[in-house]
Amino acid sequence: MQQRILVIGSGFAGMWAALAAARVLDQHGRSAEVEIALISPEPVLHLRPRLHEAAPAGMTTPLLPLFEAAGVRYLQGSVERIHTGDRSVEAVDAHGERFTLAYDRLVLTTGSRLFRPAIAGLAEHAFSIDQTDEASALDVHLARLADLPPSDARNTVVVAGGGFTGIEIACELPARVRRVLGDDTEVRVVMVERSHVVGPDLGSGPRPVIEQALDELGVVRFLGAAVEAIDANGLTTATGERIEARTVIWTAGMRASPLTEQVPGERDALGRLHVARDLRVKGADGVFAAGDVALAQVDDAGNHALMSCQHAMNMGRSAGHNVAADLLGLPTQAYGQPVYVTCLDLGPWGAVYTEGWERQVKLQGAEAKALKRRINTEWIYPPQPSRKAALEAADPQRVVVA
User: Fold this and answer.
1) Which residues, in sequence order, are bridge partners of residue 244?
2) Class of domain 122-250
3) How confident is residue 290, by pLDDT bands cut at 50, 70 and 90?
């Protein structure tokens, strides 16, 4: 009877996990004995690192040709329940019909979602760029600003959150809004961050470069100010400041997919499952996790992977290799990603590129922007839809820094 490796999710980690598992089966002549099935709502890769850019609706790439070439069976649907006891999942297909699918080994790669706390008006009035449809809704809204009567509120955009995503979208917005309202319009972009510094999680290394870019782009900062409430006409901070704005964008914080709660095991404050060095979930037999749902150690110094495309791609390769090796009774390999870099897009100003967990600045401005453009238009994209190219690219030893 044919066995099954089931991958849940077709993001960066899921795509690479499926291809890496196919590579191991191919190497050992076992492809006919084991089915690799991947289930997700649609067979596309959403290029989430690019959703701060204009025209986000086009930031997807099809995966069916790639899966077919690699021998991965694609199932369209959404998993609602995971039963690790009898190794099965319950899912709903594209027509709303429920079905159950058994597995011998499971790889959970359902990613993360923007954290939306119980702030008054957040759900009703704030935009986001967390998912493709949400970024597209913002894009449509910005395009329609020109239809509104001129006012300071119309010309003001507030970015709630001064982390990685908040910085990237804030740097894009001045030029992006002027393209809609006219170059002579006085556009005001305001960043609201509860910490007393910009990019609190990015450390002090790149901060002077980030602050220079924000200053030169004209982005105003309200630091040490938490968001109290959002409405159709603006935002109020916990310290009483009122910012009139017809556009508020929420970027503050991420949480792992809620499917992690259905897998036995310990989770961190972000909802990520604790995994062993080979990415198997501690306490859940036959289950591996990769990407934003996994708290994975990346080196012997004790650093852990971040919720990022960079870590998801390599983690996916390792999880796919190990889940197939485990099923075949072969030794697994420790996941490791000792080289860590950051490349932060700073809009028309350029970018900043750092190396190491201390984030030492190596490139900035136009030179770093050229690297960021290459990352976003080449390195994060899937391989060509040929079996040879796909399996070669899925080698977990082929560490990608992006």
Assistant:
1) 234
2) alpha beta
3) very high
> Do 347 and 172 contact (CB within 8 A), yes or no?
yes
Strand partners, 167: none
Given this model, what pLDDT does residue 401 score?
A: 57
pTM of the model: 0.96
Residue 117, classified by CB atoms within 10 Å of its CB into exposed (0-12), middle (13-18) or buried (19+), is exposed
329 has a pLDDT exceeding 90: yes
Within 288-360, residue ranges assigned H as helices are 309-328
Domain made up of 3-114+254-339: CATH architecture: 3-Layer(bba) Sandwich (3.50)
* Cα 338 from Cα 156, distance rounded (Å): 42
Q: Determine the 3-state secondary structure of 202 from DSSP.
A: helix
How are strands ordered across the β-sheet holding 287-289?
98-102, 88-93, 72-83, 34-40, 3-8, 105-108, 287-289
255-269 pLDDT, tens digit each: 999 999 999 999 999
* Token duo for residue 356: 């190491």
Residue in 165, 162, 171 with CA at minimum distance from that of residue 192: 162
* Helices assigned H by DSSP within 74-163: 122-125, 132-143
